[in-house]
Amino acid sequence: MVVVYVEEAGELTQQALAFARFLAEPLHGFAAGEALEVGGVETLHVAEGEAFASYAPAAIAAALAELAERLSPSAVIAAGTQRGNEVLAHLSARLDLPFAANCVAATPGDLFAVTRVRWGGSLLEDARLDGGLKLLTVQPHSVAPEEASATTAPVERFTPELDDADLLVRVVERVPAAAGGVSLAEAKVVVSAGRGVGSPEGFAIVEELAGLLGGAVGCSRAVTMAGWRPHTDQVGQTGTKIAPDVYIACGISGATQHMAGCKGAKTIIAVNTDPEAPILASADYAVIGDLHEVVPAISAELRKAKGA
Amino acid sequence: MRVLVCVKRVPMTGGKIVLTEDQQAIETKHLGFAISPHEECGVEEAVRLIEAHGGESVVLTLGPPEAEEQLREAMALGVDRAIHLVTDGEEWDAQATAAAIVDAIRADEAASGPFDLVFFGNESADAGGYQVGIRTAYSLGRPAATGLKGVAVGDGGVRCEQEVAGGRDVYELPLPAVLTVLEGLNLPRYPSVPAKLRAQRKPIDSSSPERAPSRLEKARLVVPEGQSKEAVILGEGPAAAPAVVDVLQQLGAA
Predict the structure, then answer these.
(1) What topology does CATH give the domain B2-207?
(2) At what angle do helices A57-71 and A82-95 cross, to 10 degrees?
(3) Which residue from A minimizes the CA distance to B235?
(4) Which residues of A touch B243 (CB under 8 A)?
């Protein structure tokens, strides 16, 4: 049996279910507070109580620990999101077990043979995972999701025993984001530039092109570390992970740190003075040239095409 | 107040990751090293808190002798002193790492008093285990908030903000607490030359803890099959603009 922590119903949960089903059946689901509509599991176990009114990672882990003790599954699995990883890290600390985050594959056994991502996906690690109960999360978008079941699973509610310490950390308030322009994470077109732009003002030509394409502006880590753009504009392993239809990368060399953030792009167009730049090995199209000349020329050509 | 920040030395990988022949590590012969990015913001935050509230900041790393370089970097940013848990360069898994850090924190606190805050990166750039901070908090019996992009210390507590879809979630923790942070929390300062010189004279307390056996044991590293592409060259310089627009139109983007 495998228990799957369901943070929310959706594609990442379907991916985690597909991953879990490969390890052992039956699958049992676990959710905190709300009886989510989830299919494909024998039972959805729902932790009830005031503690679960908002996200409280230690309390959720305490509930999962209690459920795991009752059901004796061979593994507890979650999607490798910030919160999936956080809850499983709490569970592993509580039970003094190892925990493998962001796995792309696992083979069951006494020790699980797992393959997990490092460097935001730029490197893979084959590892052996110990522990009577195996704890792992599934790297998002590394396995095909299973189709959502037409019927939702029966719900079994329980009220876990909690310590005061489990209740210390919980979301007390949600501050809504200010409505802004096109969100970088969801934009269909992203135009990015690196430090070669030369100055914060140098981004004017990048903003112009992004505006003409109805897209968002991105940048490299070097740009945000120089203070030229806010961190929210950074595309990369430690910035925003994007998956646009078209990514136009201007004067960006293609460091692994950056590529970990844009490998979800369907098409990459690189503008670079260096025909040997690493980004050309990831790009679909390239223009060899100085972004200061090429980017305004593309904007001018777009205006011409629109005017025609 | 007293603030500890835990950092990890990681290679700056550049454009392509190359592995050692035994596939146990990244070939770093031609690479520089840095503090893992999220943790660099932890260092800056620790320094700002001490500048604002007074007290002492300490940086800790578990790593090879060369990791002294990252401790000096942190002290050049303004951290007062350092604790170096020296390893032979072999990787430690998250459980072993957290256990050694917990021992070091207890020893330092026994001598100098409790840390109000202990900072970690949300996850290291290289191993990305997402757990050392939480394990440390758990062993110390302290609350932990993770993935933070906002930290404000107030009366006896700390208000933390985490970016989520649609806004920011707020946590309010009592002190002492463990916080794991993300790049973007702040913009780390650039160290001045005098600050770098001062950092050379700041104290480092070194010891060599025993490594607990790995329970998540690395077998080997593999560079994923490159989706290495042969980019279609649309042209050189501004003359390529019409070809770019053609492609954008074909893709339905223009």
Answers:
(1) Rossmann fold (3.40.50)
(2) 60
(3) A287
(4) 287
